[in-house]
Design a protein that fits this description.
The complex is a heterodimer of chains A (114) and B (111). Chain A has 114 residues and is mostly beta strands. Chain A contains no helices and eleven strands. In chain B, the strands form two sheets. In chain B, strands 2, 4, 5, 9, 10 and 11 form a six-stranded mixed beta sheet that branches. In chain B, strands 1-3-8-7-6 form a five-stranded antiparallel beta sheet, with no helix packed on it. Chain B contains no helices and eleven strands. Classes of the chains: A mainly beta (114), B mainly beta (111). The A-B interface holds A 4, 33, 40-45, 48, 50, 55-56, 58-59, 90, 97-100, 102-108 and B 1, 4, 6, 31-32, 34, 36, 42-46, 49, 51, 89, 91, 93-104.
């Protein structure tokens, strides 16, 4: 029984570039949330998608965008990368799109911006 | 916006002792309070959660207590073992669609 998967595992980019991160939720889960975890801090909410629609957005600039596909997988896109975007990006899936439900995290994508 | 304060930031205990981590939240609409354990280089894993209609929940050596009036919840680990060493995060969820996390507690259990 596969858990949440994310790709790539690690990524190195330079300032100004664009990046796309991918997430596949647990089978049967319809909600995907994205979090940014800076070293030494707790995860910070970026987006939640449920049934392919954005349900919530955290305090992140418009350079961050996401989408969810018909198979419930999701992409997180970040444009015009800044040094401060270096972080672990976590995807979490849950059965339904409310914060009352257990969220299962993927292993994350470690993004380094040089 | 919602804020979750977590204390202490680091905690060192001897094997067999108890460990307590405390969190406070600001949003009175919060109804769900999970605790995650994150080992170095690994994903956060849910270890226990509690909903607002319950004051306490226990699962073997781990327990969580909730005081909604004080907007305060705590994680209690008894009979600590070296494998309990990790970073622990509290979080709160409410009427919106996100979890708000604390900054984490690095727990070290010394053999």
């Amino acid at each position: 029984d596969a858990g949440v998967t994310q790709s790539p595992t690690h990524l190195i980019k330079t300032r100004g570039q664009h990046v796309t991160l991918r997430c596949s939720p647990i089978s049967g889960h319809k909600s995907v949330s994205w979090y940014q975890q800076v070293l030494g801090q707790g995860p910070q909410f970026i987006f939640q998608y449920y049934e392919k629609e954005e349900r919530g957005r955290g305090n992140f600039p418009d350079r961050f965008s996401a989408r969810q596909f018909p198979n419930y997988s999701s992409e997180l896109n970040v444009n015009a990368l800044l040094l401060g975007d270096s972080a672990l990006y976590l995807c979490a899936s849950s059965l339904v799109g409310t914060s009352y439900n257990e969220q299962f995290f993927g292993p994350g994508t470690r993004l380094t911006v040089l | 916006g919602e804020n979750v304060e977590q204390h202490p930031s680091t905690l060192s205990v001897q094997e067999g002792d108890s460990a307590v981590i405390k969190c406070t939240y600001s949003d009175s609409a919060s109804n769900y309070f999970p605790w995650y354990k994150q080992e170095l280089g690994k994903r956060p894993q849910l270890i226990i959660d509690i909903r607002s209609n319950v004051g306490e929940k226990k699962d073997q050596r781990i327990a969580v207590t909730l005081n909604k009036t004080a907007k305060h919840f705590s994680l209690h680990i008894t009979e600590t073992q070296p494998e309990d060493s990790a970073v622990y995060f509290c979080a709160s969820g409410g009427s919106n669609y996100k979890l708000t996390f604390g900054k984490g507690t690095l727990l070290t259990v010394n053999p």
